[in-house]
Amino acid sequence: MRLFIALDLPDEVRQNVRELIARLKPACRSAKWVRPEGMHITLKFIGEVSADRVAHILAALAAIRSTEPADIQFRGLRFFPNERRPRVLWCGVAASPNLAELVASLDGALVPLGIPADSRDFVPHLTLARFKSDSGARGGLDALLRAVGELKSYDFGQTRETGFHLIESILKPGGAEYRRVETFPIVKAPA
């Protein structure tokens, strides 16, 4: 199984993303635009694991808690690594500090199971589009850069997340399909 841990998006944010992609897509048809129905905030990519390890992962994740829900604001458009050599267009995610603490707890719970900690800093975001790296694939990119420049502080909405999900990614020719394996509460219920 190919697994990752993520937060879902509220319907309002998903709809706002859908509308923005519909607005920007004509400016840059060479981009590979992400389907809004599959969007999520990835907290931890686990990768391929055998079915017999899933029970151990579930048990480790069930023990993770925060003191409060994660408050998240979806705002702004950016490029990885930058506007001069864009590879990814993404929506910024500003979150309460406990989201980064939750991600660190995920690493701490999964490392003993042989799942390596992430080597890069956690940068929460929503990927909107990907671009080919060769300079011949710039078709429409300049128009997209201008459009994004006018929308740098675009507000997609906000949410208060109370749970995170273990998700299986099933790779298919038409793109990945996601199946929720289990949902875990972020805040421990009072005893």
Explained architecture:
The chain has four helices and nine strands, in the order E-H-E-E-H-E-E-H-E-H-E-E-E. It has 191 residues and is α+β, with helices and mostly antiparallel strands. It is 24% helix and 34% strand. A hairpin with a 6-residue loop joins strand 8 and strand 9.
Termini separation comes to 34 Å
Largest sheet, strands/sense/barrel: 5 strands, antiparallel
Point out poorly predicted stretches.
none
Helix percent band = 10-25%
Q: What is the CATH class?
A: Alpha Beta
- The figure for the number of domains is 1
* Proportion in β-strands: 25-35%
Known CATH architecture: Alpha-Beta Complex
| Side-by-side strand order of the widest sheet | 2-6-5-4-7
- Give the full name of the CATH homologous superfamily: Cyclic phosphodiesterase
Give the oligomer, counting copies of the same chain as homo and different chains as hetero.
single chain
Quick one: how many beta strands? Answer: 9
Shape: globular
Note the total helix count: 4
